[in-house]
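S., here's the first fold you wanted:
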Amino acid sequence: MFKYLFKRDTLAATVLVFVVMGLLALIPINTHVLDPIKMALQDFDYNDLAYAEMHKNAHTGMDTGIVVVNIGNASRSEIAEMLTYVLAAKPLAVGADVVFNSPKEAATDSMLRQLFAENETLVLAYNYIPGSSSGEFLLSSARTKGYANFVGEEGGVIRHFAPFAGKEKTESFDAALARQAYGDAYIKLKERHQSTEIIDYSRSQEKYLVVDGTTLADPTISAALSGKVVLMGYVAESPNDIEDKHFTPLNAKSVGKSVPDMEGVFIHANILSMIREGNYIQRFPQWLNWSVAVLLCWLHMALFIRYFLDHHLWFHLVAKIAQVVSAVLFVYLGLLCFYQFDMQINLSPTFVAIILAVDVLYFYEAICNWLHKKYGIGSIFIHQHH
């Protein structure tokens, strides 16, 4: 392997792999024949295995600083009453993960409007639509508000959230709550200057205290809300109730998911836990992802060329074994980095480069033979017959 590592042809063949990758990226290809495979692997990310199989969050304790209030199927008047009890307990912040699309009963709507107008720590959720004004009628009166949209929520797995949106840096629901409750952590979030953050699902929903909204009149229950962040939203009573559930990396089925596994209010809870604790998942910068791809492709190319020239009988067997072993090893190392160090590495360029390397090697050999016949340019591939 090291015999050919620094040969000009090894370096040139490695460069050609990435040239071919760039050309393939520019060619529009009809992939309808692959639709069944695409559907089976839709929205799959191997890092999900860190949660589903390696149980990344298994040793995380309960977050006692966040309380979820289950509003169930409460009417607006009941929600207004719940909010009154919650605010009376003097929490750090209250997030109403409820969308009020249009007016209903005038008296109830007036009560809700007054609550949102008089309480800065009460954050109203709404749906953000770029380039248009939102239709939620209470927004104009709410002192604090934030959009509750998730990145990829249209049938996909919720892995990211956008802290701020648009040129105006409109606050998300979670950022608005963090500003009210966790001042220093909010500043750190802003200083990261990330358009999207990878959500650290540090806790399943069993690791958050859930209070039934109908029990808030009990003084012992309301006392538990004091000094906490309170999230009010819908919590399903049955696993088959998927009214406000989304797919997350915690889903037991990493491929071919069928049933959403987590309500939006618990996704917000995980985001808030991450912001407060500062446990952000770091991304390898793109230049580093591609540098790793070039380095590993170069090493594989040296190995492939050695067997291509010196032991051609074993070339294909060694190449396939090397590709399979490398794929398994890289996935494991990527998962280990994600699990142990909260670091996400994009190994897709590496996988593609190593897969293409064998075919590109044959193409490169043909180019070398043509250049030798045409211009007399030497190469380690000249006079090699197989």
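And the second, which I think is the more interesting of the pair:
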Amino acid sequence: MRTNKRLGQHFLYDPSLLGRIVDAAALSPDDTVVEIGPGPGTLTRLLSERAKNVTAIELDEALYRRLRADLAGYRNVELVHDDALKFPFEKMGEFKVVANIPYYITTPIIFRLLEAGQHLRSMTLTIQKEVAERIVARPGGKDYGVLSIMVQYRTEPEMICIIPKESFRPMPKVDSAVVHMKIRPQPAVAVDDEELFFRIIRTAFSQRRKTLANSLRGVCGDIRNCLADAGIDPVRRPETLSIGEFALLAGPIGISRREG
């Protein structure tokens, strides 16, 4: 099958690997599933056997036309010719996402789903291995950062398996991984001001080689006192803080900003 390099298309055909992806999604006969980038429709067919409804969003017009013919007999599959980054997930009822995501939209589509899909229940994504490692990373390692915390704040991520690059056609330059992200009923930590919480995290990791006392000066005028109030050593670096410690730090910084 011809692929569109501009859209980062790499297709997976191995039935055993596709089966592992579907199993990881833990689908029930009552589920509605969204597939982003169905490509040749191999995964789409498997999803239609497990779920009540499948909405498959395909941006490539040539693939969309081909899929309309190939999947014409699948009554529970709705094909949508659209950009998943612009799709109105807000209007959907409860749904799960299962997809082989093009590398170039991996992070944007994850954030789009987390922000827009209030009825989203889980994401089972085949993504670049390096990104998967960042999503599941714990404090203290080089992979731990903004993406780790942003995803873990909303979900419980689990690395399911590694898929070698040789499994795809055409073959990409790097290996992939399957990550299952179950949406938490409540965020991992309680914060009064999410916008400030995420700003602190982004600012801290934008200068991850610096200590917190230096990297967060722009967020709080008296950052050393804020760190002391949160019980955090000012010489620590951002990759050593847990999501809970960032939440603790957001409290004193928020108070300091209101008083200032």
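Why I say that: The first helix runs from residue 15 to 24. The chain has two domains: 5-183, 194-259.

Talk tomorrow,
H.
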